[in-house]
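The following record pairs a protein chain with its ligand, zinc ion.
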Amino acid sequence: MSNFVWCHGPSCHKSHTQDRIRGVKGSKVLRTKKVAKVTQDRWTNMYSFFCSQGCYNDFANTYVREIIALHPRTEALETPIDIQQVKHPEYNNGYYTQRAYTETKIIAVDNNGG
Ligand SMILES: [Zn+2]
């Protein structure tokens, strides 16, 4: 079992960087970069499959329609909340006066994991 995956960026092998150069004189290539394989699921993220944010962006922009087709959003999601109005009085710290203001606090409501 190999301990790496190839970067999934569709243009990874086109970036002009020295660490992509492979091959012998006369038949040099720029090669897709290796990405160290993640062994634990909890560490899996985009850097488990891409060598850089740029390669991730290239992949996402190239395949976004296919990815959306796999995970379509056909209706809006909602998070239950409570709204709390918190009044803050005028305050002076000796250098600066913060005017009184009302803060609108959004408080998550536990809907039992739904
Ligand atoms: Zn890459």
